[in-house]
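Note to self: user wants both folds in one dump. Writing first protein now.
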Amino acid sequence: MTALQLTNYDFHINENKSAHNCAAYIGNDLVVRRGQEFNISMTFNAPVQNGDRLTFIATLVTSSGGGSLLEYTFSDSSSGNSWAAKINANGSPSITVTLTTPADAVIGRYLLNVQTNGGTRRIGEFMMIFNPWAPGDSVYLADEAERQEYVLQEFGLICVGEASNQIAAPWNYGQFQENILYITFALLDSSLNFRRNAKEDIRQRSNPAYICRVLSAMVNSKDDNGVVGGNWSGDYSGGTNPSAWNGSTSILRSWNQKRQPVKFGQCWVFAGVLSTVSRAMGLPTRIITNYNSAHDTNGNLSVEEYYDVYGEPVMESDDSIWNFHCWNEAWMRRNDLDASYSGWQIFDSTPQEMSDGIYELGPTSQRAVKEGDVDKQYDTRFVFSEVNADVIKVVVQLNGRKAVGETDRTKVGQFICTKAVGTDSYINITNEYKYPEGSPEERQIYNKALGLIGMSAGFVAFSADGRSASNQRREAEVSGAISVPGSRKVGDDIEAILTLKNLTQKAKNVTVNISAAAIVYNKAVRRKIFNQSVTVTLSPNEGNGRGIPACLSCIPSKRKKKYEKEIPIKIAYSQYEKLLTTDNMINVTAVCQIEDWGDLLVENTIALNKPSLVTKALGPAVLGKPMGVEVKFTNPLPIPVKNCVLTAEGSGLIKSELKKSFEVLEPDQTMKVTLDIEPYVSGDKKLLMNFACDKFVDVKAFLSIIVTEMSL
């Protein structure tokens, strides 16, 4: 009897990748989704008969090498959720084999071997990922438009700015670009879990919830030498300013090459990279932006903000409110929780607080957050505070006494959004996270959450003498707000208005201490611009402007509401020019000391708009043909800008980042640059551009380019 020997094989890479919605993965590797069959052709040295025994074995391999950690033998039956091989033998040396994998198989890189009476022969390698198209997979997503957006889309919009000025910044995920999937698996193999117990870690890679938790830890560099090093200091020397990144691919490739954290990132960078590796593995993933996002460090579902009488922050608490914060969501069935908690799951790689001893977060059920079920794993309590914490403002008097002010129940989580499906815009999803502010349901949920952590409504963690006390609300006697008419851009003189209103029938003397500071978006840096004080008298039922110095005289207005007084706040460009951080944000605070009542603290953050890039394609985009893209930038400042650099990247358009430089750009001078690109993938592609100089670092734009396979 002739020993059966394999002489040739064909993985039908293009056909199988296309059938598995994996055609976009660049390279000659076979990428398949679990729970779905794929075909290979094999040729032997002799005819294959039905009685010949062929055994197929898949062995999971890791980037760290070593012996076999997991091995599966394909059965000859395709019944059930199993590893199965169906052999179409007809007495010919050439056969077709249909391989099927379980819908809950471990994802990763596999070596495929075939065993015959002539021995064992290695056929090749395939990479298996999650399958949102397979109903049996726990990441199954029924809507095809959502699968196209959350799995196959390489372009994203990440919202930044602040609640009243939302800015959608482009991001290139590039999950299908060369070697990115390999790097993603290498990232799993670098985790603490793998290093501690490789076999147990590998076994759990069938569970998308487990994968999310590991990735949330590995994308930040805390604990495990992960991908991105965070920096919120305002000083980014020794690395790249977080605002300058256009996408994830260069970050991931740099980490893979050096196995050292890439410097630097902030929340949207962490979220962008996390989306890339998650989508590369087949997880339906999106980025969420939460405006006025609470960082509750002590877990009491409240944020305590301390200020001195001049409006300067006092570090009595590590709690904070970020102007915005970005995290990720993945769609999955939660097999570890009640079925009602399935759906979108929050996971976050920005290192804020430890969970299970390391910097990781999630997956947290979005529904658990909305319903206040803060006892559900993982990290639901922390995420609930991010979107729905109460804010308690405390003014520290000159004698050290703490005056507890009003509790703001509506500031946190003012607007929550994500990129819209199928369009280059974003949508409001606040109601997916919380009931409407001011509604009975919202307060009921908040009180329910307090009860689950052993606290009762109406109490705060401190009082003026440092002991717990009831946070009884006093009837407000004066209201205040800081507004900024119109929009403002970098280089403008800023005019804000503090509006005070007497709510009583008694005249009120108010001493107002106003401060302004340039900040980073999470307020970790505060560079003082100015402090000034004024005393005003609010007459009962009217405001007449008496007692205001000439520099802060009231603005006359026939349409001014009764009982209101407007105090202008002016900040000249010359005052903030050298203090502005790369986030282009100025925080204005007013502490209003009200006669016979107490302190009212009012604040607002002004996000200054940046100038724009003007882009256009110079001719049609044809696969494999050179084309040009024109980019213009005009210096809007009254002074020259220096060290001008334009960078561009785009999956399917540019294989490596393009860069053009200018030494100086004079006031009102326009820089015109032509970028030469050669599209290598057809379809709707995006070219992302970032302009930086000594005064701006994150002037961004993107251009949609339809790449055809032939000239029209």
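First done. Writing the second protein, which came from a different request thread.
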Amino acid sequence: MKVRDVMSKNPITIKEDIKIVQAVKIMNDNKVDGLPVLNDKDELVGLFSKESLYEAISKIDIKEKVKSIMTRDIKCIHDYEDTEKMFDMNIGRVPVIDDKNNLVGIVTNTDLLKAYHNRNNIINKKLNTEKNLTGTLKTILNNAYDGIVLIDENRKINMINNSYAKFLNVDKDEVIGKDVTDVIENTRLHIVLDTGESEIGEIQKIGTHKIVAMRIPIIEDGKVIGVMGKIMFRDINQVNTLAKKINSMEDELKYYKKELIKERRAKYSFENIPSNSPSMNKVKSFAQKASKSNSTILIVGESGTGKELFAHSIHNASPRKLKPFIKMNCAAIPADLLESELFGYDEGAFTGSKKGGKIGKFKLADGGTIFLDEIGDMPLNMQAKILRVLQEKEVEPIGSNTNYQIDVRVIAATNRDLAKMIVDGEFREDLYYRLNVIKLEIPPIRERKEDLDILIDVLFEKHKGDVGKYVKGISEDARNILKTYHWPGNVRELENILERAINIVDSGCEIEVMHLPEYIRGKIEKNEETSFSLKKAVEITERNTILNALELTNGNRVRASEILNVSRSTLYERMEKYKIK
């Protein structure tokens, strides 16, 4: 019989640098007792087994890597060799390699036992006496790591392997043929012989040890003709130690699952979008109504206006709120990785692809919402694929021939002018109309100055405890200066400025004008900082108003003077006074 005929093909393998806790989970999930270990070049370098785990379990940290406890001195067998060679190797689990030394399988005593048992059944062999046990079966059982004993229908020991005999401290040749109750303390094999009922995981005291045993009746033609006993754990302390380790692993796994669920949930609601302005309240009201539908939403607005907050809030107010909320910044991912991030890939789809493949963002969001931020920065070839997902409601991972149906609501956002991008050939018109089913336009701060007071208060409360000191508040002078600024960076810029001010203000003091950046407060001489006057406030307000007008007109002074309702000569005079270039 050749090795290739009985080996387990395409064995599950692990890398030597993964953590022991991960390896144990893989071993448990796949119900195997050992895993071949490969290096980064996919070369066989070791064997990770329950034996090596049991021997090291009291000494190791489960966060260590597999290579710290794996068996390095491994013996292999070629797939074309005869299984008889295994008996000379005297080990119970052997990696199988082909003529190019590639790992192609793994063969265990169990594989051999099944193969020989099946062959013996065909030629009507029986396992009721030692005389009828083939030399092959004896070798397999004798070399097993676990203690194994067989008794016949007369309670006599037919076979006991080396491991069990050594554990009992007896000569195995001397105990063959003896009544099992005279050899094994507190045995129940004879009881299982009478009942015909298996006993798995039973505690049995032998000498100073409390072992964990299993007992399985051997039945032929409906009659119990013997019982096999096996030591599962040689000391119950091993079980307790392993149980503690497993409990620790399970607790850790639960924690990470919980954190992963948190990460895939929307964090904000409409209550987190403070507003006193009619324009912003109108957008919020419309967004709340839109959240009840399944239609695609396009959120547009300048950078820092809070587009992501609206996406989170819409999801949390929708019927999908208990399902995943997955966000993706289309500008933050390299173009060549965007497709695999969104759609995933099958194992072996390309060089460097992760074993087992990868689930894409769309599949992760199934049943929930996906937020595609900075959609205007998506390459044209990907725009076509997004359009197909929206139309067909299915995704096809890279390297797969299978399409997967998905139920995902899409919310897209951009600070770019998509209509102009369509004219310039940078954005697909058909995708634009597919995204633009419901459109939300978030107004910038300069168009809703009524919101500045509440935004300042909310952001101050959010960050006042960041640096471990007491900050009294924000002075009226500082607040008034903040109100005069044109805020090109919108809420994000306001938050950064307040966070900076909280960091530099002295403990127990208010944020004053001096704590604001110079580009906001204007150039104030040091001797004026302590005597900030109404005149100075008017000058700063006038300077910032001119800056606003110039920004709105892209530096066109003629148009700026018209907006400000002053002559060009007056504008030039004021610009020279405030050193505006």
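Dump finished. Worth passing along: Residues 236-263 form the longest helix (28 residues).
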